[in-house]
Write a structure and sequence with these properties.
There is one protein chain. The chain is mainly alpha-helical. 52% of the residues lie in helices and 10% in strands. It is built from seven helices and two strands. The chain has a two-stranded antiparallel sheet with strand order 1-2. The radius of gyration is 21 Å and the shape is flat.
Amino acid sequence: MNEALDRPYTAQEVEWALFMMGACKAPGPDGFTAVFYQTHWETVGPSITNVVLEFFNRGQLLDAMNQTTIVLIPKIKHPQDLKNFRPISLCNVIYKLCSKVLANRLWVFLDEIISAEQSAFVPGRLITDNVLVAYECTYTLFEEEKG
């Protein structure tokens, strides 16, 4: 696992991650969405790949890539109070791309590095499984008290 996680990142991983991203998700502070980079990959691909690989292989990321705009999204029609808004962070596509490349690499090992008790946000596991476990524990405890 360590060897797989430690190997140098590649241009292929960067391209694969970009094309896995939702094309028209919210833009970052620069106004670009993933569809721009996907559409113009032949032109911008080498530059974008270099930026992402610099981050992973040398630990360097341009400050501008880490800028985020926070936007308040109304939860209801005609919100009056701050509690009626949900804040979201709009990150640059390159920042999202770095996160996606890392997530793709970790994906293979999720079952090994996340405990069996963690049921939410893990493929093949459901948070409702915890309800069943809690029910079984409670049932067993009550049966032991009776008996």
